[in-house]
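Lab notes, practical 5.
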Amino acid sequence: MQKYTLSAVKRTISGHKVTTLRKQGLIPGNIYGRKVPSKAVQVDLKDFGKTFSKARESGLVELTLGAEKIPVLIHNVQYHPVTDIPLHVDFLQVNLKEKVTTKVPVILVGEALAVKDKAGVLLQLLSEIMIEALPTDLPEKIELDVTKLKAVNDVIKVSDLKVSDKVKVLTDATYDVVKVAPLVSKEAEKMAAEAAAAQAAAAAAQAAAATAAPSAEAGGAPAGGAAPEKAATPAGSSPKAS
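Output from the prediction step:
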């Protein structure tokens, strides 16, 4: 997998005073991990945006902090509720020899025959799944070929996804990832809403059971577009915001 880099600086400002950092184009954050002390840091907003747009939650990032080079996963980005600008970020320091759990996006490839023949509409019910692997074995995405879907009610389940034998899928294997719905807009929308809501709730409950939510720096508020709340957490670890 590709490794990304990002520079961080030790942060001395905490609490509500971090608003001064944001005005300077900086994002407050914390490095945390299993058996490692929490470190308060700050990163450049533009540099973070470039790295996060590629690495997301499953890309291994080499975070430079002074003379240290720390392997981390980007975890729990909080956004401004109006501007959608990142307000705070947690970096999960990982041990390259220990497995972690994280969510990885499912990307659809190709055009379903049912859609091409105008027999139905394709609904993506899961856009990401929970996996477990060593940090260096984490896929940045899982591609799903949908060309074989020919008729209404054809589905591809989590169990049908192709992943490396080094990756363990934790999301329930019986969940539908994509499904062909009838070519009736109202019915398709209803099916999508009901199915997506049910599976999202179940997946969220499963993720909550598998991971522990980190604490965040005061002054941040999650909003639409935020990264998954429990992106990647090894057993027994939790950040300590300062």
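Observations recorded by the TA: The first strand starts at residue 4 and ends at 10. The CA atoms of residues 133 and 167 lie 5 Å apart.
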